[in-house]
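Memo to structure team: turn this sequence into C-alpha cells by end of day. - J.P.
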Amino acid sequence: MAEGERELVILGGGIAGLGIARLAARAGWPVTLVERDDLASGASSSTSHMLHGGLRYLEHGRFSLIRQALSERMTVSRMAPTLARPVRFLVPLRRGDRVGPWRLRAGLALYDLLSGPAGPSRHLIADARQARALEPGLEPAGLRGAGVYGDVIMDDGRLAIAVARDAAAHGAGILTRSELVAARPDPSSGRQVVEVRRRDTGEMVELRPRLIINATGAWADRTRATLLGMLQPGSSDPPRLLRPTRGTHLVYPALTESHALVTLAGDGRVLFVIPFAGRSLVGTTEVETASPPSDAQRRPSPDEIRYLATEAARVLPAVAKLHPLAVYSGIRPLLSSEESVSEASREHRIVEDGPLLTIVGGKYTTFRVMAKDVVSRAAVLLRRESIPRDEAPSPLPAPFPDGGDDEAFAEHAITNEWARTLDDLVRRRSTFWLAEDRGLSAARRMAPVLGRHHGWDAARVKDEIDRFEASVRDELMMLDRTLAIR
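Reply from structure team:
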C-alpha cells in the first residue's frame, strides 16, 4: 500500500478500539488507531475491575449477554493470567432484603449453569455463622447467611495496554495524544482522507483508510456527528445513540479477608467491595451525564463519595473508622433507552454511515465479541472473503513484573507501552497509585527517565513532578472536605 493507506483507521484507544485494532492486525489488515489522550484513559481504566457475566443482570433477563460474557471471562483470563485471577464472591443475606434465600440460590444456580463446566467454582450457601467465619467484618445484625460464587478480578488499565501491545506486535499503528483535525472522501481512490495532529509535537499525519471506525466510547455521539459533518457536508446531526452514566469508586485499605462482596445498598442498588492489589474497591454509582460528558461530569461528586462511604460502613462497620485512600470515576457508554439506568442494556450496537462504522455500548468483558462484530462487518464492506477469527487466542504480552526496579519499569513503559507522563506510568501501567503515598515516591524516581526520553531539562522534569503531585493533592483534599461534613 502507498504511504498512509490503511484498511481501517480506528478512533478511540479504549478497550473496544484496541480490541478491534488487535483483531484486524492479527488478520494482516493495515490498521492505525488514533487516541486523543492516553490509552485506556477513559472508562477502560476506571471500572469495577471485574471480568464477569453480571449476576445482577439475571433480574432483567439478559441471559444471552450473561452467557456470552461468562464465556469471554474465562477466555480473557487465559489470555492474561498475570492480570486476571478468580475470586470468591459473597452475597450476604439479610432479613428484609428483596432477594431472599431461595431467590438467591436459584440465581446462583442459574449463573453456574450459564458459566458452563469451565467456570471458576460452583456456588454454595453458607449460614450466618459460616458467613461470619468467612468474613468476620460483616455486620452481624440481621445476617441470615450468604451465597458464595466464583468470578474474576482483573487489572483493567494494564489489560488494555496488553491488548495494545499485541495489536502493535502484529503491525497495528498506535498514535496516542493525537487528535482528528479533518476528514474528507477521496472519490478517485474510494478512500477517506483523515488528517491527524500529534498534540505533543504539532506534527500532521495523513491517513487514507477505506473505513473509519468510531470507538470513542462516551464521546461516540460527538465523534459521529463531527465525522459525518466532514464526510457528508450539509447533513444534519444524527440522533444520539448514547445515554452515558458516571460510575464512581472509593479505594480503601483491605476491608475483607480475601473475598469480594456483592450486596444491596439501602436504596436497593447493588454495591461491590472488590479486593484488588491489597486494597478494596467500593462501588459503584450510576449518575446520568450528557453525551458527550463535560469535564465536570467526568469527576466524582461529593454526594457519590458520601453515598459509597455510608453504604460500605453499613455492610462492614469498620469502614466508618477508615478514610478512603483514593477515588476515581469513569463514564459508561450505555445505549440510549427508556429503561432506568440500573436496568439499561449492556449489549453493544454497530451503526453504519457509509464509510463510517460506530460501535457503542458493550461491556469490558466482551471486548473481543465487539471486535469480532465490527471487523466482520468491515470485512463485508471491504469485500474480503475471509473474516478474521480469534477462537483460540494466544496469551497477551505480560506486563512488567510488580516489585521490579522503578526506573527499569519506566524505561519499559515508555519504550513499549506508549507512556508519556507520570500519570500514564502510575495510574494505568502499574499499581503505584494504590501505594500508601499514592505513587509519589515512585513518580519522583521515574520522572528523570521521562525527562531523558523526551529531552526535558531539569525545570521541565520538576514541572511534571509538580503537576502529578498537585493532582494527587487535589484528590485527597476533595476526599477530606467531603467526608469531614458527612
